[in-house]
Amino acid sequence: MVVTDLDGTLLDSRHALGAENRRTLDELGRLGIVRVISTGRSLFSALAVLPADTPIDYLCHSSGAGIVSWPARVALRVVNMAADAAVELTRELLARDVDFMLHFAIPDNHRFYAHRTQRANSDFDRRVARYAAYSRALTQPLPEPCVMSQALVIEPPPGPGRHAELALALPGFQVIRTTSPLDGASTWIEIFPLGVNKAAAATWLWQSAQQRALGRVAVGNDYNDVDLLDWADHSFVVGNAPAELCARYPTVATNDEAGFSEAVRIALARG
User: Fold this and answer.
1) CATH number for the domain that contains residue 20
2) Where does the chain have alpha helices with state H?
3) What is the mean pLDDT of residues 128-138?
4) pTM confidence score
5) Are residues 87 and 137 in the same domain?
6) Strand pairing category for 58-61 and 35-38
7) Binning pLDDT at 50, 70 and 90, where does residue 139 land?
8) Do 184 and 209 fall into the same domain?
9) Structural domain containing residue 211
């Protein structure tokens, strides 16, 4: 099984699947190797950049909260947040005075409530503007308690912002750090039900496919890939990953230089 991140890893800087990486995915299919994309994007957002003929077998979206088969797009697994947990989380984030979005339940998790403080936060504003048709202002604590999927806190640069603080303050939730795909500098802090992450989704697929005797390969580029990279037998980060990750994992070419394909070649050569 080969599991790859999407933006900044499999796709190039134009959010396109290059010819070499497409050929690699085709070859993996011919070899009978399961091909998985694992992305922080919602299903709605992922489908905006993945044509129906993308040569994969599964798509893990929303950082592993959802899994669909490909190309049929049949939902195989969904993990949402219970209504009472969503209320608890909202109250905690409001008390901490952070800029955040609270996303509706999968598969409608491209829709969200947005809470904005008074500080400068251009990345938050940019995301709200991009999804203006799907965004509503948050009333406190919630207009109507209901099942949700996640919260997303956006922290302006520099540094990881309040990720460590929130991870300690929210032991009943999965708190994941990643870098903004919009400005490449702000920190996004994703908060899911406990146990939701890319490694958990990959484990579920691995066990379902009954491939425990074969190798697991993972390719990523950011902090939200760490659990997946630690899960795999053969892990790689592309050359555009943060220096901290390049020092920790074997590093291949950048996403614009088909680093994914290089990682697969190395893993196949290892057997």
Assistant:
1) 3.40.50.1000
2) 19-30, 43-47, 83-95, 122-130, 163-169, 198-209, 226-231, 243-248, 259-270
3) 96
4) 0.95
5) yes
6) parallel
7) confident
8) no
9) 2-79+197-270
Position 252 scores a pLDDT of: 98
* 169: exposed, middle or buried (Cβ count in 10 Å: 0-12, 13-18, 19+): middle
The residues that bridge with 177 in the sheet, in sequence order, are: 189
Can you tell me whether residue 105 is helix, strand or coil?
Answer: coil
Query: At 93, phi and psi to the nearest 5?
Result: -70, -35
Q: Looking up tokens 């950048």, which residue turns up?
A: 254
What is the structure's pLDDT at 262? 98
Question: Are 4 and 221 spatial neighbours (Cβ–Cβ below 8 Å)?
Answer: no
Mean pLDDT for 196-218 is 85
Are both 89 and 179 inside the same structural domain?
A: yes
Whether the pLDDT of residue 143 is over 90: the answer is: no
Q: Is the pLDDT of residue 83 over 70?
A: yes
Could you say which of 175, 193, 211 is where a domain stops?
193
